[in-house]
Every structure is written in C-alpha cells, then in structure tokens.
Amino acid sequence: MSAMQELMAYQRDTEALGQIAGRLGWDQETVMPRGATEQRGEEIGALEGVLHARRTDPRIGDWLAKAEPADEVEEAHLRHIRRSYERQTRIPARLATELARVTSLAQGIWAEARGRNDVGMFLPTLKQVVALKREEAAALANGGDLYDALLDDYEPGATAESIGAMFDRLRPRLVALREAVLGAAHQPAPLEGHFPAEAQMRLARMLASAFGYDWTRGRLDLAVHPFSSGSGNDARITTRVVEAEPLNCIYSTVHETGHACYELGIDPDYLLTPLGNGVSMGVHESQSRIYENQLGRSRAFTGWLFQRMTEEFGALSVADAEAFYGTVNRVQPGYIRTEADEVNYNLHVMLRFDLERQMIAGTLEVADLEEAWNARFLADFGVAVDLPANGMLQDVHWSVGLFGYFPTYSLGNVYAGCLNKALRAEVPDVDAALARGTAAPATEWLRDKVQRHGGLYQPREVIARACGEEPSEAPLLDYLEAKFGDIYKL
Amino acid sequence: MSAMQELMAYQRDTEALGQIAGRLGWDQETVMPRGATEQRGEEIGALEGVLHARRTDPRIGDWLAKAEPADEVEEAHLRHIRRSYERQTRIPARLATELARVTSLAQGIWAEARGRNDVGMFLPTLKQVVALKREEAAALANGGDLYDALLDDYEPGATAESIGAMFDRLRPRLVALREAVLGAAHQPAPLEGHFPAEAQMRLARMLASAFGYDWTRGRLDLAVHPFSSGSGNDARITTRVVEAEPLNCIYSTVHETGHACYELGIDPDYLLTPLGNGVSMGVHESQSRIYENQLGRSRAFTGWLFQRMTEEFGALSVADAEAFYGTVNRVQPGYIRTEADEVNYNLHVMLRFDLERQMIAGTLEVADLEEAWNARFLADFGVAVDLPANGMLQDVHWSVGLFGYFPTYSLGNVYAGCLNKALRAEVPDVDAALARGTAAPATEWLRDKVQRHGGLYQPREVIARACGEEPSEAPLLDYLEAKFGDIYKL
Question: Which Gene3D superfamilies does the UniProt entry name for this protein (chains A, B) (predicted)?
Fold first, then answer.
C-alpha cells in the first residue's frame, strides 16, 4: 500500500470512531436515562482519549510527508488531515480527555440549572469549562489570538476581526430595520391557541418530508435543545414541542432538516473520509437557515403551511394565509435566540460573540457573566431579562465548550442570503413548488451547488462557487429589508 | 502508581469503551435508521479493533506479572483481566475486526430474511459467520475442543460434556412431564381477544416497576427480538408487542427486567471494573428466568396480574384468576423458543445445542441446517416446522456469532430452580407480596445473594453460596413437576 492508501485506511477508522462519538451525543440528549450521566462522562472521555491518540499518532506525520495526492479530492483529504493533525498535536492528551469528561457532565448540570433557573448551580462548572477552553486555546494559538484559535475549529479561515467587521456592517441596517418594523402602524397578530403535541409531531414529520429528508437514513426525536447529529447514512434530527407555540416546533424541525440534508447530500464516495462532513459550521448553518427562512418562511411555503395547520388544528387565530405569513415572520424583542425572528437573530449572536470573546480573553469573569449578559441584553433589546433561562442559561453551547461557535450562526445567515439570491436567479419555479408543499427544486439546487461537495472546498470558496461571486452581507440585508418592508408596509 | 493501580486505570477506559459497544448494539436494534446498517458495521468494526488492541496490549502482561492484589476483590479483578488477556491475545486483530463487521451486517440480513421467510437470503452470511467462529474457536481452543472454547466465553468453567450430561438428566423427566401434561383431561384455555399495543406497553411499564426496575437508570423500548443491554447506571430493556398475544409482551418484559436488575444491582464500587457486569450468561439467565417464571408465572403474581389486565383490557376470555394462572402456564408444542412454556423450553435449547455443536465441529454444513433443524424439531416436538421464521430463522443468536450461548439458557433455568428453592426456604412473605403486585422481598434477597456480587465469584460458586449447596437439576425438576402436576391435576 502507498502512504496515501495507508493514511486513508487509518483515517477511515478514525472517522468511524468519530461517528460513534456523535451517536453517544445523540443518545445523551434524547434517550439516555438521567442516572447514566456520570458514567456517560467516563465513556465519552475514554472514547475521546482514543480519538485524540489516533489523531496525534506520529505515523500520520510520516504518511503526510510521503503521501502523493493523485487529484483534487486527495489534495483536499490531505488538507483536512494535516489541519487536524497540526491542531490536535498541540493539545495534550490529558486536556482532551478532561475537556470531554467535564463538558459531558456540564451538559447535564446546565440542563438542570436551566430547569431551576439557578445560575449559581451552573457557575462552578462553567468556570471549569472556560478554564479548560482557555488552556486549549493557548495550546492551539501558539502565541496568536486565543479566540481565533477556537473559532478556527468551527470556521476554518475566519477570524474575530473579520467577524467583528461583518457585525459592524450588519448592525446599523438591522437596527434601523428593527426600529422601523417595531414602529410600524401595521403589526401582524400572534398565533394563539392550543396545539396538541401529537399533531405538532405529525406536522413536523410532514415538514421534514417536504424538505426532502430521507427517513431511511435518519429519524426525528425530541430534545431540550433541538440539534442534528451524525453524517453519512445516519443523520438524525430533533425538535421540541411547546403546546402553545407550534411555530417553535415547526421551524426547529425545518432548520435541523437543513443541517441533516447537508450531511445526507454529500457525495457517497466521501463516506467516512475527511470530506464526508459539512465543511464548516457557517456553511452548515447556511443550509439550515435557507431551509428555515428564505424557503420555510417564504410567502409561498407559509401559504401551504397555513392549509396544513388548519387541517391539523382546525381554524387558526389568524384569518388567512396572508395574515399567517405576517404572523410567522413577526418581529419582536424576545429573549430567546433560537426563537428570534430574522431581523433580531444576528443581534442575539453579536451579544454572545462579544461576551465569549471577553471570557476567553480573561477580561470577563464567569462570576460576572450574568450581570454582563443582562446589562448588554437591556442595552441591545430594550428589555430586562426576567429569568436566567431566558438569559445566560438559554443556550447549551458554553456548557459543552462551544466557544467561537455562535458567530458561525451569523455567517450562516449571510451565506444563506447569498445562496438565496443565486438560487432565485437560476431556478425559476422555487416558489411555485413551495406553494405546493415541496422544496425540491430549491433543495436539488443546494445539493448540487453546496451539499454534495462535503469538505472538498474551503468554506468561503464553496459559497463563492455556488453563487458566482464572493460572499457579502448585502444580499441578506437586501432580502430582509425587502421582505419586512413588504410585510410591515414600510 | 503501583502496577495494580496502573492496570485498573487502564482497564477502566477499556470497560468504558466496552459499554459504548453495548450502546451501539442497543441503538442498532431499537432506533437506528435502516439505511445506516453498512456504515454501522464499519463503526462497530473500528471500535472492536480499538477494544481488541487494548485488550491485547502487552503492557497488560507486564502489569499482570507485577500486580499484587490486596484483597479478594483485587484478586477477582486480576482473574478476570488475566482470563480476558489470555483469550484475546489468541485472536488475531484481523479476525476480531472481521467478526465484528460481518456479524453487524449479518444481523440486518437475518432480520430481513426472517421477515421474508427466506432462508436462502441468510445462508451465505451465516456460512461466513460460522467460518469465522470456527477460526476463532481454533485460535482459542489451542488444540482442545472447538465448541468448549466458544462456550467458555459465555459460561466460564462449563464444557459441552457437563452441559450434555445436564441435558441427559433433564430430558427424561421433562419429556415425561410434557407427555403427562399434554395427555391430561384438564387443559387450560388460551387467552383470546385483541389487546391494543398502547395498553400493553403501559402494562409492561407497570410490570417492570413491580419487579423493581430503576427507571432513572434504564428505559423500555421495542425491538424485534427483546433484549437487555448495558450495565452500571444504564441498563436498558426492550420488549415486543403482538396485539393478539399480550403474554408475549408481558413475560418478555419481566424476563428482560430480570437481566437489567442484575446489572443495576451490582455493587456500585464495581462500576467500570471487571466485576461490574453479570458474571456469566448462565447466572444472568437465572435472574431473568426466576423473575419471569418462578415469580412472574406464580399463582400469587398472576392473581394480581389478572386484575391489572382486566383493568387495562376489560373482561378477559378466561373467567377468573385461577383459570388465568393455568392459561399463563399453558403447555403447548409451539415453534418459538422465546414463547415456550417452562416444560418445553429446555427441549428447544437441546435442539440448538446439538446443531450448533455440529456446525462448529464441521459435521453439519450450513447448507444442510434447515433440513437438520426441521427433522430434529419434528422428532422432538412431533410437529413439522411450517415457516423458516418459526424454525431456524427465529433466533438472532447465530447471525451475531453467539455459538455456545444457547445452553446458558438452560443453565440459567437450572440455577433459577436452585435459587427459588433457597429463596422460598429463607423468605416467608414472597407470595404475599407478589399477590399485592410487588416482587420486592424476592428481588431484595436476589440482589443481596447474587446480584450485588457482580463478577466477584465464579458462576457456579455464586449460586452455591446463595443456595448453601451445589447447584443441580433436581430443584428445577421438582418445582416443574409440582407446579404442572397441580395445574393439570395430574
């Protein structure tokens, strides 16, 4: 066997073990008995120890030195493996195992603290996680910026500076749009009523199907914080059900369907190779967000959805499809990021981006986080946080060590804006199909332009190739101003 | 750290990774999407490769040579680790990985073949599995008997000769009892009617609770072939629902509850150590069988169950609790081992024991298995097999490589007979509690006498210590003759 073949055979087992870690994560958040939490921490710690040992095996260095790529695909394989090897060899095995163990436990503590609205219960663990992540960042940064070192894990090539500049360009137009919308004379009505859990789940399945989810290679379950998990031929989605708020379940489902369809849409030749996963969190989020917003919250699709909801739940509190379109896109200064409308969403991310940069820089102590969060929330949204579960305890991310992850949500929104512009220019019948309850013309274009490539191209590159131009904030902002200007009759 | 401490720390991670393999097995048989079958095979293969490498790591040999046990517990740890090390180092890594991969795929193929009653579809895979198991047996046997080498994996210390002798002593009294029962003038009525799946699952949960199942450390799901899985603080059970046959779901549930309670009852100090699992399949089955039969099918408990079933399903087709007791214990020459009554059950096992010994010895070709099965079934039970799903395709075991496993079911029945005799002698209020719907006095005695010890004692030793005498077939046969003599008014 050549060095390239040996490396790829070795890598295949590592990818398979990485998939197993994903399965354990899914299990933990959907079906695992509560009493298993500590034991699961040890199990995940042991597996992460194995993965870390494999990813830092010195043979990889030898193979990388000798491997001769035959084509673009093999070059991309080597790029991913080299990147992982260089990052992982900087992290001591002890730290990798400890991080896996602590974050596994922290997730359970976070969930309980959130349920009890008890910040104090969560702080000691969060402090531990932040300390470990700072240690990891220092090992990775090699003298460079700590936050950039973490961000690079989720979005290769991105920096805090480039993200900060993006936010600087987004903020004024988003804030202006929000103020105009909130001050508008015309305000869509909220959706009121009781929406039984079973019917919501039935609708959720229908929605995943409408967006092309392959049920033979996935499944839908309930979770506290909806997520998607796995790749290749096993990409599962989760949702949540609140009986007074069916739009929560509906759009969580469509969002996670977008993530899972990305994984399921990757070229089967890339299965269990470094190209067999979505290339970055930003590109991943571009898929979930375009499914959720530009497609799922479009006038065309909400027209179809209005009919389905009427069938499932009887007459709704809003009169017709046009009113429902406004309701689905209602702009409000809510507490919760995952429930935020398209106008407010990125403002929620900006808050987290600034706070987590400070925590990683060491300029914000975990003990002061709640105060900082609440002050910033009041400043940005004009509303005081009422409960920790609506404030700093709302997201799972920090408990599981995901620092540098939040800004990829906004990158995803920006990329979704770019993709939507190109999609609409190239595919004429998107809305006609959505009005019939199928996203197929759109999802086929996305599979061909983005999803099937997996990790073949760099994140910005895959978007640029799909759109025929460099990504920028303009298409997203133009889309938002046009859509909400229309809905709010500005 | 001493050699003992180093060995135990290393072993802990291996145990944790072994638990992960169990979780994947659970996932595969309960929730995994069908399209993930092949990928899962690769995932399990990669994990088994890691486990095999860890279990054969030469450092274990060094630690074993230097480790000084401080007490009985550490001696038992070393005994388990030495045994595993000696067995595993005989199996080449390639064979271990190949076995894991092939049996993972074979399970899916078996399930499909069973569904379609298509033996031909299953044979090529089974042939592959048998060839690999013979190779494994040859590596393990080191010149000794091939079948004994496999049997020893499930029941340390047992041999085909000792099992054969046990069957020789069981068979005549069981056959005589069966003939007397089938020829009796009094015959209990079958249970007839339609029993909705939801109510059966509700009842299944109630039954697991009645037998002390700890829901914070387990869960109940559906599976094609009911099983229990996991240990420590995550021991899950599965059941199946046939709407015309609620007793299937009921006693599968109680049976698997017995297995899970054994794992959950082990001393928490043994968590993720070699003592933290049930000590053998025979002892495991003694727990599931005593829960299911000597307790669950007792007159006292079926009296309570009759009331609960009447509440769930309305009036039953049998008139009263006494008639229901007969119905639950009805003896019939059915096709399916897992549905067999207590009198026939071990006869089903004897058939499998003889056929699998021949397959491993190479005196029965896989291609001839169906004919051999059907001929033997007709001879033993007086009925011709109608469909492969009622014949050689009914059990999952051979597809997943479990050769040498079946006889442990009968060992478990024999051990359950011994334990029941001792339990009834020592604990006076077992039946009074069962009549009130709780097995607590019995399960507490079993936890104290058997379950909490985990792997501390040898299999026969743990039963002998619990009963105060060497295990033998007599208590089981005495119990069966008394019970069925009474029910059938012999």
Answer: 1.10.1370.30
The answer, yes or no, to whether residue A90 has pLDDT greater than 90, is yes
Instruction: Give contacts of A20 with chain B, Cβ < 8 Å.
Output: 20, 24, 43, 46-47
Contact list in A for residue B16 (CB cut-off 8 A) is: 39, 42-43, 45-47
B10-60 pLDDT tens trace: 999 999 999 999 999 999 999 999 999 889 989 998 998 899 999 999 999
The answer to whether residue B100 scores a pLDDT higher than 90 is: no
Distance CA A167, CA A410 (A): 9
CB contact under 8 A, B12 and A40: no
CA pair distance A82, B90, nearest whole angstrom: 36
Interface residue B219 vs chain A (CB under 8 A): yes
Q: Hey, what are B311's tokens?
A: 């509440």
The domain limits of chain B are 3-143, 160-487
Chain A residues inside the 8 Å CB shell of B13? 45-46, 49
Structure tokens at B211: 């037998």
Alpha-carbon distance B288 to B228, whole Å? 10
Which tens digits make up the pLDDT trace of B393-402? 999 999 999 9
Q: Distance (Å) from the C-alpha of residue A205 to the closest C-alpha of chain B?
A: 15
**Pick among 1.10.1370.30, 3.40.80.10, 3.10.20.30, 3.40.190.10: CATH of B160-487:** 1.10.1370.30
Alpha-carbon distance values, B370 to B126, B133, B300, B304 (Å): 12, 19, 41, 42
CATH code for the structural domain at A160-194+264-487: 1.10.1370.30
Mutate: best of B42, B57, B264, B272, partner A, most A CBs <10 A:
B42
What strand order describes the sheet that includes A228-229?
A: A220-222, A236-239, A228-229
Cβ <8 Å between B35 and A217: yes
- Non-local CB neighbours of B401 within 8 Å, separated by 6+ positions: B99, B103, B106, B129, B132, B133
Question: Of the ranges A8-22, A37-51, A67-81, B11-25, which one carries the lowest mean pLDDT score?
Answer: A37-51
**Is A33's CB within 8 Å of B219's CB?**
yes
C-alpha dihedral, A291 to A295 to A296 to A302, nearest 10°: -170
- Please state, in angstroms and rounded to a whole number, the distance separating the CA atoms of residues A214 and B33: 10
Question: Residue A150 in contact with residue A360, Cβ under 8 Å?
Answer: yes
AA letter at B350: M
Task: Answer yes or no: are the C-beta atoms of A418 and A472 closer than 8 Å.
Answer: yes
By the 8 A CB rule, do B230 and B22 touch? yes
The predicted pLDDT at position A449 comes to 98
* Residues contacting A265, CB < 8 A, separation 6+: A446, A447, A451, A452
φ/ψ of B472, rounded to 5, equals -150, 170
Per the CB < 8 A criterion, the answer to whether A230 and A221 are in contact is no
B461 Cβ partners below 8 Å, 6+ apart? none
Residues in chain A: 490
Residue A198 parent element (H or E): helix A197-210
- What per-residue confidence (pLDDT) applies to B338? 85
Pair A140, A151: CB distance under 8 Å? no
A110 contact partners, CB below 8 Å, separation of at least 6: A122, A125, A393, A396, A399
Which one-letter amino acid corresponds to residue B284?
H
